[in-house]
Amino acid sequence: MGKFENKWIRAVIPALLIHCSIGTVYCWSLFKADIAAYIGNSVGEVEWAFSIAIFVLGMSAAFGGKFVEKDIHKSSLLAALFFVVGMAATGFFISQKSLLGIYISYGFVMGIGLGIGYLTPVKTLMLWFKEQKGLATGLAVAGFGLAKVIASPLMEQLMGERNSDGTLVDPTNIYTMFYILAGLYLVMMVIGHILLKKPAGYEESDVQAHSFSYRKVLTNKTYLGIWFMFYINITCGLALISQEKGILAFIGFTAIGLVSSLTAIFNAGGRIAFSSLGDRLKDRNSIYKIIFISSIAIIVCTIALDGINNSMAFLIIALLCIVNAGYGGGFSSLPPLLSDRFGLNNISTVHGLALSAWAWAGLSGNQLSAFILEKTQSYDMVLYVIAALFTVATLISMFVVKPEKVNLEQEAFTKKEEMIVG
To answer: Which of 27-39 are b and which e, b meaning 16 or more Cβ less than 10 Å from the residue's Cβ?
Structure first.
């Protein structure tokens, strides 16, 4: 059995199995219109299921970090159960044409599975790859980004042929697909659950687990700076990514599917490239400066050439690819950055708290660009706002996120001593 006790079998493969399963939440755009048509509601009403799922993902990670810290075997199994039950229940409620049921199953139940499942493999990976923590988290989180590329063709196949107006020939395929996918992801996530294991000899410290200070983290300027720049990166990414199809159609570019796959590859590639680069830098926070400044640069180039309307197609595609890469890189670079600042012992808890930024960005990102377009009918104005937000994030990265490491345990020990003396 010794030959199976290595970082690939016990960390990378199970992490990819879990993240490639839960990452299919980003396939939502492929079937939301079909769900709306089948149940008789508007796409806007159905869209809230995805927003709820992302919000619950972030909040369940925030509140579930300590549980994940304590037992990855229970957390990985719990993630599988919530995600699979939520997916199967979504199929059932679609068949019953219940919008509320879809909100509960896809939004809340699956959302809990997403949050716990996203968080569970991260610390294990960094324990196995202590010298290459960025590469480790990049590999796993890339699975979350690649899930859309892998699952999209399968979903299209399961939904079957379409009529000339784009509707499904057999509308019942939309809920049958969820049943089939639930079975597939149950197998994948259970295998991941069985394989996932921390390195031999590693044991959690009960003292550290009990001495963790939430107050010290939540009031720490470095943590707050990381939270806000992470939130801005996701908000800006979603604001542009959610308009990807509309922008391409606006400039008359017809190969939208090809560009969608290309940007998804950049999204996944950015997760590996940026976090791996962070392993070689003196300060991992420099990665975020690179992400923000490169995004600002491509936006300025686009605006300088008279905006979306008059820029060349390749520049628009470059804009979408660079922002997607930075969006993905922001996710994979977060855990090792937090580990550098707050230590590895409580990383699941601190990472979970930071992922609450994802929850709020999930509610604000899409809506930001939609609001701007509704008021101005201008994609250029969307770019101006995104560039301004990226500038704020750059300033936070430069002046707020300090390089020193924060001791989370010392304050708790001091508090205990004060209580004893008192």
So the answer is: bbbbbbbbbbbbb
